[in-house]
Write a sequence for this structure.
């Protein structure tokens, strides 16, 4: 079974631009979460999507947004880029079982965004 | 959300057993404890998950005391390839429908020395 894929793997943008990152979850997985990872802040939760709806949201400004499609693929968008947005953006998918056992998240390789 | 605290870094020689402890004093009844391993420029990789007592798989063991306020990841006979950052997560099971919100700690950077 193919793992979580993220595109593009690397991206260079300039301040003020916007960017869209894509994530394809493992087949059958319905939940997709996004994380931002920087050397100073570690792994920070951005948001989670399930059944095309945002279910949870971390403490990030409104410039960070996302969506999920009917096939569970997800995109995240960052508008008006700032230098501080330079980071590794990770996507994780999980089955999202109802109740019961906590879901295991499977991470993609990430998209390395550099803002100049 | 339960907050986790773990050592920032640890060093170990090859072949030794490594134990990394994570504190999660405010863990909720429905929370599970999960450990991930991350290499530079890669996404975290699932290692092990547990709720209470002891869980063992082919790569690690997880010890959780009765009060569940801490957990210890045990890596037997580490090798150089185990050099990585290890994250302890406490996950909210969520209500029916399984809405999930997890908190990553800062991670423990394990350096295995030859």
């Amino acid at each position: 079974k193919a793992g979580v894929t993220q595109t593009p793997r690397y991206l260079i943008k300039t301040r003020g631009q916007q960017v869209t990152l894509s994530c394809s979850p493992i087949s059958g997985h319905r939940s997709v979460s996004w994380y931002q990872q920087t050397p100073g802040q570690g792994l920070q939760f951005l948001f989670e999507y399930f059944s095309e709806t945002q279910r949870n949201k971390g403490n990030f400004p409104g410039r960070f947004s996302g969506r999920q499609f009917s096939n569970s693929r997800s995109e995240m968008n960052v508008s008006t880029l700032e230098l501080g947005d330079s980071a590794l953006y990770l996507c994780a998918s999980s089955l999202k079982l109802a109740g019961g056992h906590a879901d295991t998240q499977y991470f993609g390789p990430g998209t390395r965004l550099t803002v100049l | 959300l339960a907050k986790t605290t773990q050592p920032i870094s640890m060093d170990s020689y090859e072949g030794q057993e490594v134990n990394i402890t994570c504190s999660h004093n405010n863990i909720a009844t429905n929370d599970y404890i999960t450990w991930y391993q991350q290499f530079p420029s890669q996404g975290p990789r699932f290692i092990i998950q547990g709720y209470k007592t002891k869980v063992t798989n082919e790569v690690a063991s997880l010890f959780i005391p009765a009060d569940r306020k801490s957990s210890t990841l045990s890596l037997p006979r580490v090798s150089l390839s185990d050099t990585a950052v290890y994250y302890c997560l406490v996950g909210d099971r969520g209500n029916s429908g399984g809405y999930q919100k997890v908190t990553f700690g800062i991670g423990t950077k394990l350096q295995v020395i030859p």
Summary: The interface with chain A takes residues 31-32, 34, 36, 41-46, 49, 87, 91-93, 95-107 of chain B (CB under 8 Å). The beta strands of chain B are 9-13, 18-23, 32-38, 45-50, 53-56, 61-64, 70-75, 84-92, 101-104, 108-113. Residues 36 and 44 of chain B are 6 Å apart (CA to CA). Confidence is low (pLDDT under 50) at residues 94-99 of chain B.
